[in-house]
Amino acid sequence: MIGRRLIGAIPVLLGISFIVFLLMHLAPGDPVYLLLGENATPEDVARVRHEWGLDEPLAMQYWQFISRAMVGDFGRSLKFGEPVMKLVLERLPATIELATISLIVAILISIPIGVYSAVKRDTLVDHAGTSMALIGVSLPNFWLGIMLIYFLGGRWNLLPVAGRIEYGLEVQAITGFYLLDSLLMGNMAAFWSAVKHLLMPAITLGTALAAIVTRITRSSVLEMMRQDYVMTARAKGLSERAVIWRHILRNALITVVTILGLQLGALLNGSVITETVFSYPGIGDLLIQSISARDYRLTQVLILFFGVIYFAVNLLVDVVYTFIDPRIKL
User: Fold this and answer.
1) Which residues face 83 on adjacent strands?
2) Is 170 helix (H, G, I), strand (E, B) or coil?
3) How many angstroms separate the CA atoms of 306 and 99, rounded?
4) Contact predicate 278/149, CB 8 Å
5) Each residue's pLDDT tens digit, 21-80
6) Which DSSP state fits 81?
7) Which structural domains are found in the chain, ordered by start?
């Protein structure tokens, strides 16, 4: 089953790469003039076009990109002049770290509130939880990020507003994840600095996800509470806490995990705006720079990475199903 899914991902990724390639070339703006400046001579423009293969027909450019990508050669960035994979791998850990912390924040908020709202259905607690979820879904990420910067960073000076770590602190690169690397090296000053820099963007990304998961958790728990096996568990004399957390929530998690898997991909997409707002050096910020510079190769590879991550997350969700409910098979 997993092998068939992997094979089925190939035409999807090829389709993504073709659409991105076509749209980037149809968009206004010339990367050569962005690279050389508006005062570049025709001779310099022609020379740079030839060096980067931009004077080839579009079909030939696309074929060269795909044929090289199949052997792991994604070329060099037009804007930065460095290998594309090097740039992506340098920025990828930052985005994964941000998405992971955002997911943890969302789970810690949404699961308890969703379960408690379902158990206390139609009470003040339920109405408050539902209203908070509605507000969280309605707030745009960029606006919430700007408000956090204004209050927590500007007026109250509680958290840093940009970057990954305080200037002057260094983390020895082992995995690329600042939190993990600082712990491995025993550098607690760098660890707490990285935590502080992650808090505001993680809250910004995690709030919308927490709101969605809260509503899904509440609905799923309410549905499970009406099932016959819940009445049987209560008839056996199990405590209400055991019934809720061991029986109801475990079966309700199938729906919740599905939403979390889909929204994890949305977290990565949302990181494009959030990383720009907080000047956070991840692949979202890199994608904005590559699009602005019409860096075709870097943009294509970054979009492909998003596609691969979406596919990997959905496959992981299917695997997690089997752990939640052993009756489900891949």
Assistant:
1) 76
2) coil
3) 13
4) yes
5) 888 778 777 777 777 777 778 888 888 888 888 888 888 888 888 888 888 888 888 888
6) -
7) 2-69 (no CATH), 84-324 (1.10.3720.10)
Residue 298 and residue 305: Cα distance in Å, rounded?
Answer: 11
Three-state SS at 59: helix
Torsion of CA 80, 32, 46, 69, to 10 degrees: 50
Query: Do the beta carbons of residue 244 and residue 115 sit within 8 Å?
Result: yes
Rounded to 5°, angle at Cα 211 from 258 and 284: 75
Q: For residues 63 and 58, what is the distance between their CA atoms, to the nearest angstrom? A: 9
Q: Tokens 């993990």 identify what position? A: 180
| pTM of this prediction exceeds 0.90 | no
Structure tokens at 75: 């070329």
- Give yes or no for a contact between 203 and 187, defined as CB atoms under 8 angstroms apart: no
- Which two structure tokens, joined as six digits, stand for 241? 């806490």
Confidence label for 197 from pLDDT (cuts 50, 70 and 90): very high
- Taking the C-alpha atoms of residue 321 and residue 254, their distance in angstroms, rounded to an integer, is 7
| SS3 letters across 188-256 | HHHHHHHHHHHHHHHHHHHHHHHHHHHHHHHHHHHHHHCCHHHHHHHHCCCCHHHHHHHHHHHHHHHHH
d(CA 188, CA 182): 7
Does the CA dihedral 146-148-154-159 come out positive or negative? negative
